Q: What sequence folds into this?
């Protein structure tokens, strides 16, 4: 059985943060959820991330301490090279991924990468966005339009339907990862050169 890196994607309101939080609580000795390094305050947003200043982020990037990094929404995001150590040690690793940067993750991790996209029906997504009360009606409609881009054009991504309960989503996720882990493919990844 080969270790996998799961690149978890989903539109706003799809329940990605809730799923990641629930996965962190699972009593599974083979699954780790990576923390992202982000240039935003530690108390901003719902994500459990490591807050870095712009200077700190640049310094770590120059030292080759990120396995992957990208920029989005006026912030810089990175995942650390500890991912590679965890994979080599036999763990599966879940990353809060971005669809826009899936190609970068594929280029580094090749067949070890398992892209999973959360899919939520329009009605359920609208209800969740309305319940959290962070957006206006117009903003909700814009988010629903953007969410439509996640389906059905999911180029080789596994689709996890998240219309049901969080418990159902966790069980479905674990089954998906286990089935992918049992494929006998040797994983590889390309280490990025250090920038001095």
A:
């Amino acid at each position: 059985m080969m270790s996998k890196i799961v690149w978890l994607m989903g539109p706003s309101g799809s329940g990605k943060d809730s799923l990641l939080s629930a996965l962190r609580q699972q009593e599974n000795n083979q699954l780790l959820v990576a923390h992202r390094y982000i240039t935003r305050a530690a108390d901003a947003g719902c994500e459990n991330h490591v807050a870095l200043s712009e200077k700190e982020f640049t310094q770590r990037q120059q030292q080759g301490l990120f396995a992957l990094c990208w920029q989005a929404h006026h912030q810089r995001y990175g995942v650390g090279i500890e991912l590679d150590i965890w994979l080599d040690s036999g763990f599966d690793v879940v990353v809060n991924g971005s669809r826009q940067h899936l190609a970068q993750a594929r280029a580094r991790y090749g067949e070890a990468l398992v892209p999973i996209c959360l899919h939520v029906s329009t009605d359920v997504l609208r209800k969740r966005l309305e319940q959290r009360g962070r957006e206006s009606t117009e903003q909700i409609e814009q988010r629903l339009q953007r969410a439509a881009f996640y389906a059905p054009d999911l180029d080789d991504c596994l689709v996890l339907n998240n219309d049901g309960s969080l418990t159902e989503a966790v069980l479905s996720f674990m089954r998906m990862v286990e089935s992918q882990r049992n494929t006998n493919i040797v994983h590889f990844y390309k280490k990025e050169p250090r920038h001095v």
